[in-house]
Design a protein that fits this description.
The complex is a heterodimer of chains A (373) and B (254).
Chain A lengths: L1 H9 L1 H12 L3 E4 L6 H6 L3 E4 L20 H11 L8 E5 L3 H13 L4 E5 L10 H20 L5 H24 L9 H10 L5 H14 L10 E7 L5 H8 L3 E7 L4 H4 L9 H11 L12 H12 L4 E7 L3 H16 L4 E6 L5 H15 L6
Chain B lengths: L1 E7 L3 E8 L2 E9 L4 H15 L9 E5 L11 E2 L2 H12 L5 E5 L4 E6 L5 E6 L8 H10 L4 H9 L12 H13 L4 H23 L5 E4 L6 H11 L13 H8 L3
Parallel strand pairs in B: 1-4, 4-5, 6-9
Antiparallel strand pairs in B: 1-2, 2-3, 6-7, 7-8
Helix pairs in contact in B: 2-8, 3-5, 3-6, 4-6, 4-7, 6-7
Classes of the chains: A alpha/beta (373), B alpha/beta (254).
C-alpha cells in the first residue's frame, strides 16, 4: 500500500502532468508551506510544493549565492532543469530570504503566466498579523480570479477547507499511531505519506491515506529500536532516513516543515472564510524564520518528545539555514534537561551516507551503551 | 577467555588479542584495497605472535571505517565507542580523548567507566586528520617523523588558514617560495591542524585529562601545538596510541 505513496513521490512530475491533462486545471508550484493552498484549491488549481531532487547540480551558481542554503538551490535547480515545465504559476508566501531568492530567480529565468509574492507577515506573534494576512489573502484571491478569469465562490472555499482539514486529520491519525510502543510504520513510510500530501490532489490523497491507515492495524515494525525525533527546518531526504532506520533506530515523529509542521493545525471554519484561513497560517507551528520574539517551537518539541516517547533527537541543519541554526543551542539544552540526548547533523544537497552512518551508529551506541558492557 | 578486537582503519588495520582482559598480542598491517583479506592476515599474525589458534578465540569485535568488511566478527562497534572504552582501560584518568586517524579526526568525552558522554567528528574534510599531516610533510619534502620534530625548533609563529588540505598545500608552497624556514612552516601547519581539532574538543567541552590516540599522537609537533592551543600542560598518550580502538573493540561485550 505504501508503494502508491512511494510512486507518487518518485514520479511527482508525471502525476502533476497527468492531473493537468485529466482535469484541464492549472498547477501552481509553491515554495514554502505558508502558501494558502485552500484558496488555490478552491479555484480548481493543484498546488504542488517545489522541492529539490538531492542530486548534485551546477546550474544555480549564477543565480544564488554559494552561502545560501542547499535546499533553496536544489529547488531552483529543478526549475532551471525544466522539471516543472507544466507549471502555470508559482507563488511564494514569504518565509525566508533564501527561498525568496529561488522564487525571484525562477520568475526571471523560468517565466510562467502567473507568479505571486504573498507578503506573509514575519511577526506572526503580533495580534495585528491576522488582519494583515486576511487582507493579503483577499488580494491574492483576486489575483488568482483575474488570472483564471473566474470567481472563487464561498462554497468552493468551504469545500477546499473541508478537504484540506480532512487531510490534516488523517495525517494526525497516522502520526498518532506512532505514539504506541508497537509502531506500525517506519519514519520513512511516514515521510512518503506527508511529502506526497504536498504534491497530490488532496481529495485523492485522503482516499488513499484512509485506506492505508486501515492496513496498519496490528502491524508492528518497532523491533526494539531506539525511538528518534527528527528536528529541522526542512527535511525530505529519503536516503538519510532510510540509512538511519537500517540501524537500530526508528523515527517516530518529526518537527520540520516537510513533516508535522505542514499539517499540524486545521482551519477553523468561520463566516469570514479568509480570516479563518489567515488564522490557520498565523497559528500553525512556526517556521524558525518566524518564531520570535518567543521561541514557541520549544514547547511544541517538548510535547512531541513526551507524547511520542522519544529517546533521542537528530537535529538536522540545512547548511546555512541561520534561523534554524539559531534555535539549535536552545533546543539542544532543553532536550538535555529532559534527559534526551541529541545529535546535530548538517545537510547539503546530497549527504555523505557512509560518513553519516558512522556518526549515527556512534550516537545510537551512546544511547544503548549497556549492550557493550 | 580470549577476545580479539580488529580496527580496520582507512590506512592501517590493527588487531589486539586479550586473554582475560590482558593484552597478549597486537599486530598492525597496511589496509590496502582488499579489506577482508587484510583483516584475516592481521588477525592470524596476531594469533601467531600469541601462539594461539583461531579456535581459541571466543569472540571477535570489529571497529573502524571498514568494519563491515570483517565478515567473521561477532559484533561491530563504532570507532567512538571503541576509543572511549580503550582509553579508559589504558589511562583511567582520561575524560576527553582525541583520536586522529588517516581520514578522520574525533573528539570524544567519556565517563569514568568508558561510556561515551558526547563526541564530535570532523566534517567532510581532511584538514583535521592524519592524511593532512602527510600531505604537508610531502609538500616540504621531509619524512613524517622529521616533520613533527622540526616544528619544535621553530622560533616564529605564522598564521595559516587550514580549512582545506588542497588550499593549505598551496599556502605552504607560497611560504616555501617566500623562503620561510621549514621549521616555521611546520609549526604553522601543526598549529592549524591542532586548531581544527581543538574546535571539536570545545564542541564536546574540554574536560581533563585529555588523551591523544591514533598515529598522529606520536607527532611531537602536533602535541606541542595542541598544548599551546588548549592552554594545558599535560596531555596523556598511551605507549602505542594506534592500538587504542582495537583494544576497545576487544574489551566490548560481544
Amino acid at each position: 500500500m505504501i508503494d502508491i505513496f512511494k510512486d507518487w513521490y518518485e514520479h511527482r512530475h508525471d502525476y502533476a502532468k497527468e492531473w493537468k491533462k485529466r482535469t484541464k486545471g492549472e498547477v501552481v508550484g509553491y515554495f514554502c508551506t505558508y502558501a494558502p493552498e485552500e484558496i488555490m484549491y478552491a479555484a480548481g488549481i493543484l498546488p504542488v510544493r517545489i522541492l529539490g531532487s538531492h542530486e548534485p547540480q551546477d546550474v544555480t551558481e549564477p543565480h544564488i549565492f554559494g552561502m545560501f542554503c542547499p535546499f533553496c538551490r536544489d529547488c531552483l535547480a529543478q526549475g532551471l532543469k525544466g522539471r516543472f515545465d507544466y507549471l502555470g504559476g508559482i507563488m511564494l508566501s514569504q518565509s525566508c530570504l533564501h527561498l525568496r531568492q529561488s522564487y525571484t530567480s525562477w520568475q526571471i529565468n523560468i517565466p510562467v503566466p502567473f507568479s505571486y509574492y504573498l507578503p506573509m507577515p514575519h511577526g506572526v506573534q503580533s495580534k495585528r498579523a491576522y488582519k494583515y494576512l486576511r487582507n493579503e489573502l483577499e488580494t491574492f484571491k483576486k489575483a488568482v480570479e483575474k488570472w483564471l478569469g473566474k470567481e472563487i465562490k464561498d462554497e468552493d472555499i468551504d469545500r477546499a477547507i473541508e478537504i484540506y482539514n480532512k487531510n490534516r486529520q488523517l495525517l494526525h491519525k497516522l502520526y498518532a499511531l506512532r505514539k504506541s510502543s508497537k509502531v506500525p510504520l517506519s519514519g520513512m513510510e511516514a515521510m512518503y505519506v506527508t511529502i506526497t500530501s504536498q504534491m497530490v490532489d488532496k481529495a485523492e490523497h485522503n482516499e488513499m491515506l484512509e485506506k492505508y491507515i486501515n492496513t496498519l492495524t496490528d502491524r508492528d515494525v518497532t523491533n526494539d529500536r531506539v525511538r528518534l525525533i527528527f528536528v529541522g527546518s526542512e527535511d525530505d531526504d529519503i536516503e538519510f532516513i532510510k540509512m538511519v532506520e537500517s540501524l537500530p533506530a526508528i523515527v517516530v515523529v518529526d518537527e520540520h516543515c516537510t513533516g508535522s509542521r505542514y499539517f499540524w493545525n486545521e482551519v477553523k471554519q468561520d463566516d469570514d472564510r479568509l480570516m479563518a484561513i489567515a488564522a490557520r497560517y498565523i497559528d500553525r507551528p512556526a517556521c524558525p524564520a518566524k518564531d520570535w520574539p518567543e521561541l514557541t517551537r520549544l514547547d511544541h518539541i517538548v510535547n512531541l518528545v513526551k507524547d511520542y516517547n522519544v529517546q533521542g533527537a537528530v537535529l538536522i541543519q540545512q547548511k546555512f539555514c541561520d534561523p534554524h541554526e539559531f534555535d539549535m543551542p536552545v533546543i539542544e539544552k532543553k532536550l538535555k534537561e529532559m534527559g534526551i540526548p541529541s545529535y546535530n547533523i548538517e545537510f547539503d544537497v546530497t549527504v555523505p551516507i557512509g560518513q553519516f552512518k558512522i556518526r549515527i551508529e556512534a550516537f545510537l551506541e551512546m544511547l544503548r551503551a549497556d549492550e557493550l558492557f | 577467555m580470549i577476545s580479539a578486537g580488529i580496527d580496520l582503519g582507512a590506512k592501517t588495520t590493527k588487531v589486539v588479542i586479550l586473554a582475560d582482559n590482558k593484552i597478549v598480542s597486537q599486530c598492525l598491517e597496511l589496509t590496502g584495497i582488499d579489506q577482508a583479506q587484510t583483516a584475516e592476515k592481521a588477525l592470524s599474525n596476531a594469533l601467531e605472535k600469541a601462539n594461539l589458534s583461531r579456535d581459541a578465540v571466543n569472540f571477535i569485535v570489529a571497529t573502524g571505517v571498514g568494519r563491515n568488511a570483517v565478515s567473521f566478527a561477532n559484533k561491530e562497534i563504532s570507532d567512538v565507542a571503541a576509543d572511549a572504552r580503550g582509553i579508559i582501560y589504558l589511562l583511567p584518568d582520561a575524560r576527553t580523548v582525541i583520536d586522529i586517524g588517516a581520514e578522520e579526526g574525533r573528539a570524544i568525552k567519556c565517563f569514568a567507566d568508558g561510556r561515551v558522554q558526547d563526541f564530535a567528528i570532523n566534517e567532510k574534510c581532511a584538514a583535521g586528520a592524519g592524511t593532512f599531516v602527510e600531505t604537508m610533510a610531502r609538500a616540504l619534502e621531509v619524512d613524517v617523523e622529521e616533520f613533527g620534530k622540526m616544528s619544535l625548533r621553530s622560533t616564529n609563529t605564522i598564521a595559516m588558514n587550514a580549512q582545506c588540505t588542497v588550499f593549505a598545500e598551496s599556502e605552504v608552497v607560497s611560504l616555501v617560495h617566500a623562503k620561510t624556514a621549514k621549521e616555521d612552516i611546520s609549526k604553522a601547519i601543526h598549529d592549524a591542524i591542532a586548531s581544527r581539532i581543538i574546535s571539536m574538543v570545545r564542541r564536546v567541552g574540554v574536560e581533563e585529562k585529555i588523551a591523544v590516540i591514533g598515529g598522529v599522537a606520536k607527532n611531537p609537533g602536533f602535541i606541542d601545538s595542541l598544548k599551546r592551543g588548549l592552554e594545558i600542560n599535560e596531555i596523556l598518550i598511551p605507549d602505542e596510541p594506534e592500538f587504542t580502538g582495537a583494544l576497545g573493540a576487544a574489551l566490548t561485550k560481544a
